[in-house]
Amino acid sequence: MSKSKSFQLEQRVVYPSQGVGIIQSIEKKEFKNEKIPYYRIYLEVSDMTIMVPVDKALELGIRPIVPRDEALRALELIGEEFEPIPSDWKLRYQMNLDLLKKGSVTDIAAIVRSLYHRSKIKELPILERKLYDSALKLLMDEVSFSLRKAKEEVETMIFNRLESR
Asked: Which of 1, 91, 124, 146 has the greatest number of beta carbons closer than 10 A?
């Protein structure tokens, strides 16, 4: 099967830049005359099911939901001081897109924090606004599962911390 950590049936996992999903099944599919095991992952946030080869899951960045302390750390990060970000939106967009692709909960929190505060200075360009909305949704999704709280409650926690600056 896989030489790395495998995931279990019904386990919630994070697919970078897509959100939290649940492993519905592990199936073998024929590919080039070989039976390859795949995870069937349902992503509720986009109502989409994806098939990921078990051997490629970690390479694609699929990971378990962060533990409670890491989710709380991401929420703390939102309220902390931060370095000013470039005023050139294209450079800023690329930096944030790279962070989003890395997919860690703290990277996503950093994107939300910087773009939220930037939007208070000047309206974000459309692409950057979409990136902010996507990062916010991903952060709320994972933190709500990690802390076992409703998404609305997590959203309030995020905005309370953002406003505390």
From this structure: 146
